[in-house]
Design brief:
alpha/beta; 40% helix
Length: 437
């Protein structure tokens, strides 16, 4: 649990500024302190700390390269089709009431049809469950597999919400490695060594957050066959599905549903650049009905019955959004991401304290390794990010948050001039802190 302890210690030191006061009276309640530990290993929790460390007297623009939300930038505004769909749903006055916990039928059917474009067989409405963003999809999935004694295999590097929810729910998690020298592929030997009779699932994120990788058809098939051998399911996080701009096309993990049952997680947040709309899905890509036989449909439904559901009018807009968005919108977004990824990768080559093992081919992130020996007064990646925020008003994410110490995750989904300014400031920061020989 080194990652959790390391982040939590930084989090406490930076946020606990209140003085101790004597507590008078006898009280029988207390707060759940495990929530603070879980919050400390979230992207949002750490970005809040970095933002608090900005120099308020510096009048330059803050360059936010730490999160995956490009919606604030004009080049990444969503399509008018999506906005019109929301307006139409509201104006109809037909979607002001409660919706079923699993989602309204038109939305579920539309999601199934959307995903079927990538599959060799057809999903049905009953395979789809709508969620409040992909975060809730993660939470529901971990809840339904987290029986007594179960464990789950998570990628190192990965999206820390999985660790946060597993820690909160007391679900054991084990990290398998990704191989930077092989395009961040899954170390399948590591997976086999970690799994035991209590392992329920392996999580993959494709396209990759935080690595910007895109897995090939053959590698995904190898993952499916390994999971089949181990008798575990695959949880495929495809929130960045189709946000690809390199030589490797996106392949849905559900293509291999005949080999192994797949729970596919997704949302409209990234491809339509509307993360604040909080609409996602959890889909059983399981043509052999193995998950149904083991009661997962009932468990998912039960879990959703006791949790929140997406706003009904957003659900009502989903068919129009998924069916009517023009390909030109997606092509434009991927072109912008490709140009930004190229710029980011090229500029990093000129910053001696940073090294990138490969150019991103998908999502909107790049991982860069910190060369601390080139810096004279930087202790680790957290220290680097805190000082960079204070001195240059540039926010990037410390790698320890996503599972690897002394790396940084940089988001390149930004206007090119803003991205170039941010990278120039990082270079200036390096030059100021470089060891003088």
């Amino acid at each position: 649990m080194y990652q959790t302890n390391f982040i939590y210690n930084h989090f406490v030191l930076l946020t606990n500024n209140s003085k101790n006061r004597e507590i008078k009276g006898k009280w029988s309640f207390k707060s759940n302190k495990s929530l603070k530990t879980a919050s400390a290993i979230t992207v949002a929790g750490v970005l809040n700390v970095l933002t608090d460390n900005l120099n308020g007297e510096d009048e330059r623009r803050v360059i936010p390269l730490g999160h995956g939300d490009p919606s604030a930038f004009p080049s990444f505004l969503t399509t008018s089709v999506a906005r019109d769909a929301i307006v139409d749903a509201l104006n109809s006055n037909e979607y002001n009431g409660y919706a079923a916990a699993v989602g309204i039928p038109p939305a579920r059917r539309a999601i199934a049809a959307y995903l079927n474009q990538d599959l060799p067989y057809e999903l049905s409405e009953e395979d789809v469950f709508v969620t409040v963003g992909c975060k809730q999809a993660i939470e529901v999935t971990l809840a339904v597999i987290g029986g007594a004694g179960a464990n789950i295999l998570l990628p190192r590097l990965g999206y820390p919400h999985y660790e946060s929810i597993a820690a909160r729910d007391r679900l054991e998690y084990r990290h398998f490695n990704l191989l930077p020298e092989n395009g961040w592929e899954v170390d399948l030997e590591d997976v086999e060594a970690l799994a035991d009779e209590n392992t329920a699932a392996i999580v993959i994120i494709n396209p990759g957050n935080p690595c910007g990788n895109v897995y090939s058809y053959q590698h995904l098939k190898n993952i499916a066959e390994t999971a089949r051998k181990l008798g575990i399911m695959v949880i495929s996080d495809e929130v960045y599905g189709h946000l690809t701009f390199g030589s490797t096309p996106f392949v849905a993990m559900g293509v291999f549903g005949e080999i192994v049952p797949v729970i596919t997680l997704g949302s409209i947040s990234k491809r339509w650049t509307v993360p604040g709309w909080r609409f996602g899905w959890l889909v059983l890509t399981d043509p052999n009905a193995i998950l149904k036989q083991f009661g997962f449909v009932d468990s998912i439904t039960s879990c959703l019955n006791i949790s929140a559901v997406p706003a009904t009018f957003i659900q009502a807009a989903i068919p129009q959004i998924l069916e009517n968005t023009k390909k030109i919108f997606f092509m434009k977004t991927n072109k912008l991401l490709r140009e930004a990824a190229d710029l980011c990768y090229d500029r990093i080559q000129d910053i001696p304290c940073l090294t990138c093992p490969s150019k991103p081919e998908g999502s909107m992130f790049i991982m860069a390794k910190l060369n601390l020996t080139a810096l004279e007064d930087i202790k680790d990646d957290m220290d680097f990010c805190l000082k960079l925020a204070k001195e240059e008003l540039v926010i990037v994410l410390p790698g320890v948050i996503v599972g690897i110490k002394n790396w940084v995750r940089i988001t390149f989904a930004a206007e090119l001039p803003i991205l170039e300014d941010g990278l120039a400031r990082i270079k200036s920061f390096y030059e100021r802190h470089a060891i003088k020989y």
